[in-house]
Amino acid sequence: MRDCLRRELLYSEKRPRDILFRAIDHIVAEGAERGEPKIVSRVTREAAARARQEAEESGFVFGPWDQTSRAVVKAMLSAGVLLNGGGAPIPADITAQATPVAALRDGYVNLTEEFLLRFLIERLGDVTTRDHTALAHALFRQFDRGVPLDDLEDRVVILLAQLAGQVELTGDVYSARQPQPARGAPRPRAGTSQA
Hints:
Elements: H1 2-7, H2 14-34, H3 40-58, H4 65-79, E1 82-83, E2 103-104, H5 108-124, H6 132-140, H7 149-162, E3 167-170, E4 173-176
Antiparallel strand pairs: 1-2, 3-4
Helix pairs in contact: 2-3, 2-4, 3-4, 4-5, 5-7, 6-7
């Protein structure tokens, strides 16, 4: 599961991710206060620098801050939690890195971690109820023995419950639900694609 996230530059350990979330939150809030929001690429770099400094000051040893910051920001873009000046999610496309981040969507931490969980379910295709521990390790891996594994597994099932409209359980296998067409929209015919 971690390898799946790594291949897509989405993997981050929980503690560094949380430090980066705080740094990004502060950077975006400071830009909003000054009326000068920073573009995604700058937010990513500054978050890595601030997280590195916070970690050093607290004695937390971690090396790959730049790579982890890129992974966290990519997950946030994919989750639609980085907002532009109009309050809309910044699309995860070629324009994303040059777009100013005006705000973060409320609940951005949960929404980003829900995205990571949904991504694994979609990509792997064989995630079952027996995989809660593996999911907890992949998404919330920490080297802090003070954090009980039961708490991490509870976090997985809570996120799964929040994904109820997007993920379904058939037997003991999780699968992503296909988006439903808007009311009144024609349904696609078998063998055709929607462009």
